[in-house]
Amino acid sequence: MAQNYKDELSGVETTGHEWDGLRELNNPLPKWWLYIFYVCIAWSLVYYVFYPAWPLGKSYTKGILGYSQREELVTKLAEGKAGQAKYLTAIAGKSVDEIQKDKDLLSFAMAGGRSYFNENCAACHGAGGQGAKGFPTLADDVWLWGGTTADIYQTIQHGIRSDDGETRGVPNAGMTAFGRDGILNREQIDQVTDYVLSLNGKQADAAKVAKGKTVYEENCVACHGDQAQGALAAGLDGIGAPPLKQANWLFGGDKATLVETVTNGRAGVMPAWSKRLDDATIKSLAVYVHNLGGGK
Amino acid sequence: MSTVTETPKAEKRASKSLFLKQSKVYPKSAHGRFRRIKWAALVAMLAIYYVLPWIRWNRGPDAPDQAVLLDIEHRRFYLFFVELWPQQIYYLTGALILAALALFLATSLAGRVWCGYACPQTVWTDLFLWVERLVEGERGERIRLDQGKWTARKLGRKALKNAIWLGIALATGGAWIFYFTDAPTLLGDLLRFRASSTAVGFIALFTGTTYLLAGFAREQVCTYMCPWPRFQSAMIDEDSLVVTYQEWRGEGRAPLRKSQGWEERTSAGLGDCIDCFNCVQVCPVGIDIRDGLQMQCIGCGLCIDACDEIMTRIDRPTGLVTFDTQTRQTALATGTAPPPYRWLRPRVVVYGLGILVIAGAIVAGLLTKPGLDVSVLRDRAPLYVALADGSVRNAYTFKISNMTREARSYTLTAEGLEGATLAVAGAEQDEGEAARRLTAAPDMVATYRIFVTVPRASLHDSSQSLTLILTAANGETASYRTVFLGPP
């Protein structure tokens, strides 16, 4: 029931709205509020003149200042690039080792390397290079293709088993699929995997280990080395065969995974980045990756 | 059904505004003891404010030589011999607590002396009033000028007053930012119109607020904006000195008639107050002190000066309006001998002890202020790295705050895990070292990436406590307790 009462106490008219006996005073807006409101309206008119304001279908009113946030961004980005230029030129002109020794360049390369890494590498190698099954941890001390800054630089440039002419490893060819290709039978695979387990101090059948040692010497030594020390330690470059006597396994060091690996072979692939990233970026990445765990 | 009820005219009440209409206060000039103290306080406060940023303090070649410098840009606070880093901001908290306690103490002893004499709002309002009086004349002239028509003379007076006000406001705003950057450099830049827009913007802001608050808002700030008057009553008790009208002596008030002698007046039941309104006219907040202690009263005592002047002139004892306690006034009113002023009261003791404790803690803290601070941030990705030989490595970001003015070198050691070795990223790697040397440039934070490698045999849990200890060449140490994570 809307009734236009005048409030007894204040003498102010009510709005006529009533909720369960409560009525609302029709007090005028405070003057300071009104004035600020009018000033805001006036200000908005000024804004229309100076700044982009009204949409006009596909275009909009530009305002006489011609301000554009997008252009501001473009300018700021260009400024940033210009500010980086001196470092980027220096990085491009120096070897990765030299960069590592220059304090300023090192901190610049590390900061840049971090964001390049997160954009390009973290998808497979994980944030901070923590790795995943089949994608090596870059923060540890196992480097199948070499862990010096120069090695890392080359690996990023040309990739591993990639379509790049200077790639490390042979494209589409990794560890032989001993089981699938019929080189070793199931029994032999069982024996050789037990032998590898025994190398790492894990539980293995002594009889199988003895036979597995022979299988190893006949089939595996060529790549993994006579001490199971891995290709690199055995002086064999460009193969990437991991040491088999270690705690850090790329695909897994348990019995089932080892059987799977020997049966089907393994061939980790990393693309060549020299076509996608410029030299300074790759050098920054090499420095960053090397510092993740100190490389080797 | 909706009906409209007309309010009968007879019932119509006078519409009552809920807002008090502001009436401009025209304080008359006062002369006397309290006015002199107020002038002295004003000069002292302004002197401190304007001179402080210009005092030089030699801190060596690479440090700013300004005695008081709040260098927000470089994140350092300099206060004479003290240099504070951002993480020591708790000293500011201590200083604020100290200021609050000092305010409480002063109030419980002598009422709102801070408000009346030392508060910037009071000091600048007083200064602006002095200018107003100088340009527009005494109270009566000012009222007439404001009520009169706009003539060339009025326009000239008002323009001159506002120009001087703006000049003072500009100097105030300008001096404020000298505290935040090197004062001589900034003044040079300002004079050559080369100062940054930030500096100019802040000067404009503080010029504007000074002009508005001291020129126009004045007592409104104290009455409506400041929270202090609202809770001062909790600090004041019946033994606090407050500005008091001696009602027992002054009432009933009536104008002095030449035909009436004092005996006649007294026998007619009249008191010493001759209702001259001088105490009201000098009041900077526009109240009548004879109404008793009021929320608006800033305790400046100018009404005492005004009343004393009149009392002297009419040959009556001074002190009809006086600084006194409620206890004494109650005794005087009943004709008994007033007890002596009791300043030693529980609240005074509590506030005083509080001040001593906080001040002591601050001084002790400053005297034993370390020159070294470390902070450690453990890498979260990867949480830990297993190495080929089975040992486990964790990486930490290690920050050294060298809070001294010389380059220092330190030895880093790890404690808590047997066989732990340390390596620093970027440095030449020689495995197996249990201690590493680190350096930090003067007054800088040095950041290192530290690798801690622990043999598998020492790992008994997936998370173990590890303490990194940094020892400076002079033996000063700082340690940080963190954790070392391993495989579950």
Brief characterization of the structure:
The complex is a heterodimer of chains A (296) and B (488). With 296 residues, chain A is mainly alpha-helical. Chain A contains 11 helices and 4 strands, in the order ββαββαααααααααα.
Description:
Chain B: InterPro entries: 4Fe4S_Fe-S-bd, 4Fe4S_Fe_S_CS, Cyt_c_oxidase_cbb3_FixG, Electron_Trans/Redox, FixG_C, Helical_ferredxn, Ig-like_fold. Chain B: Residues 264-292, 296-317 form the 4Fe-4S ferredoxin-type domain. Chain B: Keywords: 4Fe-4S, Electron transport, Iron, Iron-sulfur, Membrane, Metal-binding, Transmembrane, Transmembrane helix, Transport. Chain B: Pfam families: Fer4_18, Fer4_5, FixG_C. The complex is a heterodimer of chains A (296) and B (488). With 296 residues, chain A is mainly α. Chain A has 3 domains: 14-61, no CATH class; 81-160 and 274-293, Cytochrome Bc1 Complex, Chain D, domain 2 (Orthogonal Bundle), CATH 1.10.760; 186-264, Cytochrome c-like domain (Cytochrome Bc1 Complex, Chain D, domain 2), CATH 1.10.760. In chain A, 47% of the residues lie in helices and 5% in strands. Chain A has helices at residues 31-50, 69-92, 96-101, 103-120, 122-125, 149-158, 186-199, 206-219, 221-224, 255-264, 279-293, and strands spanning 14-19, 22-25, 55-56, 59-60. In chain A, helix 6 (149-158) crosses helix 11, helix 7 packs across helix 8 and helix 7 crosses helix 10. Chain A starts with 13 loop residues before the first strand and ends with a helix. With 488 residues, chain B is an alpha+beta fold. Chain B has 3 domains: 33-231, no CATH class; 237-333, no CATH class; 372-485, Sandwich (Immunoglobulin-like), CATH 2.60.40. Chain B has helices spanning 33-51, 90-110, 113-118, 120-136, 139-147, 152-178, 183-191, 197-217, 219-225, 228-231, 247-250, 262-267, 278-282, 302-313, 326-333, 346-367; strands at 68-71, 76-79, 82-84, 242-245, 321-324, 372-378, 385-386, 392-402, 408-415, 421-424, 435-440, 445-454, 463-472, 477-485. In chain B, helix 4 (120-136) packs antiparallel against helix 6 (152-178) and helix 6 crosses helix 8 (197-217). The chains are: A mainly alpha (296), B alpha+beta (488). The A-B interface holds A 1-6, 8-12, 16, 100, 106, 126-131, 137, 139-142, 243, 246-248, 291-294 and B 1-5, 7, 11-16, 18, 379-383, 385-390, 393, 395, 423, 425-426, 429, 449, 451, 456.
